[in-house]
Amino acid sequence: MANERFITSELNAREENFEATLRPQVFADFPGQDRVKERLRIMVEASTNRGEALSHILLCGPPGLGKTTLANIIANARGSGIKSTSGPVIEKPGDLAGMLTGLNEGDILFIDEIHRLPIQIEEYLYSAMEDFVIDIMLEQGVGARSVRLNLPKFCLIGATTRQGKLSSPLRSRFTMTCRLDYYRVDELEKILTRSADVLNIAADTAGLHEIARRSRGTPRIANNLIRWVRDFAQVRRESIITGPVADQALTMLDIDKDGLDEMDNRIIEAILVKFRGRPVGLKSLAVAVGEEEGTIEDVYEPYLIQEGYLLRTPAGRVVTNKAEMRFGIKGIGGDVSEQPRQPELF
């Protein structure tokens, strides 16, 4: 058992090192998200000129778009130290107090998945973010007393994939909220070009384009796929990743030319065939395709909606004409506008 834990720890460490190697360190090396980068540049430059700590920043958007990378770029641009953690890790007020008191003036505390903070921990953040103090309760019952700790002026950068899960009091304490969107194919090509250089992978423009357009608009997926295509090319004894090589490698993963994988297709097909094109609730859809509701809602639906294959309506999930044309199946249930508008029961 101890040996298994050691192996798992080693694998996780290698994966983190791989991610760190590919992450840009400055804004200039971070393709895409131009409007977000410009806002952050202005904030960093203004705080540097004033000699003050950065205001608190909330980064939100689907997973894999670069929220953690941006937090580190901000710290580098500001010349500040950064301490990183995640919401589920902070279980007690003492955990939070230890991290906050360990910061220096102007440092950054980065909390990933901040929407998963326990509510009692979240409440301690209110005074920390506004007044840079935190009150810790010592003991309980009759002898209970609180101790106020003064904190250095710091910047909290929160990252979340589910902004709506944050409470209003916490969300309102962030000065700037930046939403990251899916990347265009040309932006992903720039990311893959840099990754190929860092990993010493030989690939031509057609090969990188093939990977980019099947990466669901997500840099993390693109970087994972280029590693797989590299392995495929090596085993097949190809000296360079070309368009045909990338196509064969990704087809083996059941990723088609539109970037849809097996589960994407199962979701669309289930609505068209099993539910005859009629609106379907999330719970029923999850049962039909054998996947968890949260996974469908957070991982698969955003891209299907973004690409115009799926819609959420008050009656439930429905497919679009684009999805019907893709499968050559016309939903038997008729046009969605003709469906009765009743509350979704599942």
From TrEMBL:
One of its GO terms (biological process) is DNA recombination. Pfam families: AAA_lid_4, RuvB_N, WHD_RuvB. Its EC number is 3.6.4.-. Residues 53-186 form the AAA+ ATPase domain. DNA binds at residues 312, 317. Residues 184-254 are annotated as: Small ATPAse domain (RuvB-S). ATP binds at residues 22-23, 64, 67-69, 130-132, 173, 183, 220. Mg(2+) binds at residue 68. Coiled coil: none annotated. GO terms for molecular function: ATP binding; four-way junction DNA binding; four-way junction helicase activity; hydrolase activity. Gene3D superfamilies: 1.10.8.60, P-loop containing nucleotide triphosphate hydrolases, Winged helix-like DNA-binding domain superfamily/Winged helix DNA-binding domain. Keywords: ATP-binding, Cytoplasm, DNA damage, DNA recombination, DNA repair, DNA-binding, Helicase, Hydrolase, Nucleotide-binding. InterPro entries: AAA+_ATPase, AAA_lid_4, DNA_helicase_Holl-junc_RuvB, P-loop_NTPase, RuvB-like_N, RuvB_wg_C, WH-like_DNA-bd_sf, WH_DNA-bd_sf. It is found in: Cytoplasm. Residues 257-346 are annotated as: Head domain (RuvB-H). Residues 3-183 are annotated as: Large ATPase domain (RuvB-L). It catalyses: ATP + H2O = ADP + phosphate + H(+). One of its GO terms (cellular component) is cytoplasm. Has 3 domains, the large (RuvB-L) and small ATPase (RuvB-S) domains and the C-terminal head (RuvB-H) domain. The head domain binds DNA, while the ATPase domains jointly bind ATP, ADP or are empty depending on the state of the subunit in the translocation cycle. During a single DNA translocation step the structure of each domain remains the same, but their relative positions change. Belongs to the RuvB family. The RuvA-RuvB-RuvC complex processes Holliday junction (HJ) DNA during genetic recombination and DNA repair, while the RuvA-RuvB complex plays an important role in the rescue of blocked DNA replication forks via replication fork reversal (RFR). RuvA specifically binds to HJ cruciform DNA, conferring on it an open structure. The RuvB hexamer acts as an ATP-dependent pump, pulling dsDNA into and through the RuvAB complex. RuvB forms 2 homohexamers on either side of HJ DNA bound by 1 or 2 RuvA tetramers; 4 subunits per hexamer contact DNA at a time. Homohexamer. Forms an RuvA(8)-RuvB(12)-Holliday junction (HJ) complex. HJ DNA is sandwiched between 2 RuvA tetramers; dsDNA enters through RuvA and exits via RuvB. An RuvB hexamer assembles on each DNA strand where it exits the tetramer. Each RuvB hexamer is contacted by two RuvA subunits (via domain III) on 2 adjacent RuvB subunits; this complex drives branch migration. In the full resolvosome a probable DNA-RuvA(4)-RuvB(12)-RuvC(2) complex forms which resolves the HJ. This is Holliday junction branch migration complex subunit RuvB. It comes from Oligosphaera ethanolica. The gene is ruvB.
